[in-house]
Amino acid sequence: MVELLEIDSKPYGKVKVPQDEMITFQDGILGFENLTKYYLLDRDEGPFYWLQSAEMTDVAFVIINPMYFKADYGIELAETDFIDIDLTRAEDIEEKLLHYVIVTIPPEDPNTMTANLLGPIIINKEKRIGKQALSLNSQYTVRHNIIDELEISGGK
Amino acid sequence: MLVLARKPNQSIIIGDDIEIRVVDIKGDQVKIGITAPKQISVHRKEIYEEIQAANIEASKAKGETDLDNLSKIIVKKKKK
Question: What ipTM did this prediction achieve?
Answer without folding.
Answer: 0.92
